[in-house]
Please model this.
Amino acid sequence: MDSRAAPAGDLGDVSRMGRERVECGGVPMTALSEQVRAAIAGNVRHARRTRGLSIRDLADRCGFSKAMLSQIERGLANPTVEVLSGIAEALDLSFADITRTPLYEPQVMRRTAADAAARTLLSSMDRRRFEIYESLLPPEHSHESAPHGRGSEEFAYVVSGAVTLEIASWTVRLRAGDAVRFSSEAEHSYQTGARASRLLTMVSMPAD
Model:
């Protein structure tokens, strides 16, 4: 293995460290690097667009070139910590905001046939504040929900009946005993069929 260290602050380039052998938590660094670059790309692009800024506007704010920003938003660049900090400041974000990995796909826990006194459905190790709701949804009903804010997550458990959970990018069918965890930063809805459904939901938000 090459003993030369990677440049400080380089989040993506691990080629000099031996791509095949370097792992973090059991995940190959090549895959981890792609995840980090994709997360940064999505966070920068989303923040810029929600603020109504063009890439040129952001370039003027942070002092980096349009070409560099475009590569970052497409997940093609390996930005240093200094570059990410400058972009975060220009977008009024923290460094954690710009590098966090949101839940792109729902985590679904299906009901089990075996009887059990207790089972863990879903969990989170983060320090967060939360709100819990119990909802009785009538038949043929669509319960629409607005986004709950940056970094928010929603947990849902179907007590009875069945619902279809929809977000712009995916749809999942849930029956009694199923649970799901997903990012609630976008609009979402729960839809019932011919029967009423009872639903427990918890909205979890960053503590700070």
In short: The CA atoms of residues 10 and 87 lie 15 Å apart. The first strand starts at residue 23 and ends at 24. The radius of gyration is 21 Å.
